[in-house]
Design goal:
By secondary structure, the chain is of the alpha/beta class. Helix content is 34%, strand content 17%. The chain is built from 9 helices and 13 strands. The protein has helices at 11-22, 91-98, 100-112, 148-168, 192-201, 221-232, 250-261, 287-293, 301-315, and strands at 2-6, 26-31, 50-54, 69-72, 115-121, 172-177, 180-181, 206-209, 215-217, 219-220, 240-242, 247-249, 267-270. It is globular, with a radius of gyration of 19 Å. Bound molecules: nicotinamide-adenine-dinucleotide and uridine-5'-diphosphate (UDP).
Length: 319
């Protein structure tokens, strides 16, 4: 297949490029580097099956070759207001990547008669009132709340994807990605794993926001990519949750990182870091992925963190 991946220089996009190239596909990467890093795909330059366009997905996309699949991953993704690459600080760009970018990618897929896969998110459930979150849950989202630029852009992107499927018969897929981590995350983008693992490796106290009672379930990147590739090759058009079900409080998560790294500096509770409606509970119901894709995560949190540490040490100059 000839596959276009938007957001190719990002954390998830670059891993998808690697996996799809290893399967023998031809991959065209597209990115404007707004939150990504050219180093994430530097090793692919010169690969006979890889080519790259520096382009903003919010603008009309012209690719001369006919595509077999379009995977739309381009979007700022960090909710941390303290980070310049968080979507709070890129509000219009985030809404345009989700809305105009999805429209352009769907148009491209339609013209190419290509399969289309949208990277959606657990954020479409907002601060969920149903737990764990099934795909049938419609969510609890404030359209003018502080996270709305991301949540509503992704919700619009899902609606537009289904509209292209229903009205134009585009062969679409929607993956709802839950918190995922691994090598090539941006150490400065302020998400939980990069912040806390970086602090632990530097021997600093870990910044836990609020009282750390809010929960998340963290999925290792290889498991996520496996689920996405299975979904791409499936016939499922409705959204599918992909994520790990191993739910824990952020305090437990921080303690686990300190224990694995052997960091004795402990934990600092930061009170007002997220006066932004931090979702209090998040865990995917992955029944649909199990039944339709035969997928479930295999990598434990301990293993995943161990696999991530060498990259972080290299970036921090500790290797
Ligand atoms: P990332 O920031 O590492 O990657 C996003 C990439 O998209 C970056 O390389 C960035 O430069 C690029 N990009 C952003 N706007 C663009 C634009 N207008 N034109 C071209 N390129 C643009 O983030 P990530 O974690 O790899 O996330 C990738 C996708 O997966 C996003 O759509 C995100 O919403 C989704 N997602 C990720 C997670 C997660 O836990 N990592 C969870 C849910 C959803
Ligand atoms: N968090 C934290 N300390 C940090 C960074 C994040 O306690 O240094 C918390 C944050 O408040 C949230 C959780 O970790 O409850 C996950 O945050 P992340 O930014 O990874 O993404 P989210 O799941 O909120 O989209």
């Amino acid at each position: 297949m000839r596959i276009l991946i938007t957001g190719a220089a990002g954390f998830l996009g670059s891993h998808l490029c690697d996996h799809l190239l290893a399967e023998g596909h031809e991959v065209i990467g597209l990115d404007n580097f707004i939150t990504g890093n050219p180093e994430n795909i530097a090793h692919l330059m010169g690969h006979e099956n890889f080519s790259f366009y520096k382009h903003d997905v919010s603008n009309y996309i012209f690719i001369p070759d006919k595509m077999d699949a379009v995977l739309h991953f381009a979007s700022p993704a960090s909710p941390n207001p303290q980070s310049p690459s968080g979507y709070f600080n890129l509000p219009i760009q985030t809404m345009k990547a989700g809305a105009l970018g999805t429209h352009n990618c769907l148009g491209l897929a339609r013209a190419s008669k290509a399969r289309f896969l949208l990277a959606s998110t657990s954020e479409i459930y907002g601060d969920p009132l149903v737990h764990p979150q099934k795909e049938t849950y419609a969510g609890n989202v404030d359209p003018v709340g502080p996270r709305a630029v991301y949540d509503e852009a992704k919700r619009f992107a899902e609606s537009l994807t289904m509209a292209y499927h229903r009205a134009h018969d585009v062969d679409t897929r929607i993956v709802r990605i839950f918190n995922t981590y691994g090598p090539r995350m941006d150490l400065e983008d302020g998400r939980a794993l990069p912040n806390l693992l970086k602090q632990a490796l530097l021997g600093q106290p870990l910044t836990v926001y609020g009282e750390g009672k809010q929960t998340r379930s963290f999925c290792y990147v290889d498991d996520l990519v496996d689920g996405i590739i299975r979904l791409l090759h499936s016939e499922e058009h409705l959204p599918v949750n992909i994520g790990n079900q191993d739910e824990m409080t952020i305090l437990q998560f921080a303690e686990t990182i300190n224990q694995i790294v052997g960091n004795k500096a402990g934990i600092t509770f930061v009170k007002d870091a997220r006066s932004i409606r931090d979702p209090q509970q998040r865990q995917p119901d992955i029944t649909r992925a199990r039944e339709i894709l035969g997928w479930e995560p295999k990598v434990s949190l301990g293993e995943g963190i161990q696999k991530t540490i060498p990259y972080f040490k290299q970036r921090l100059g500790l290797a």
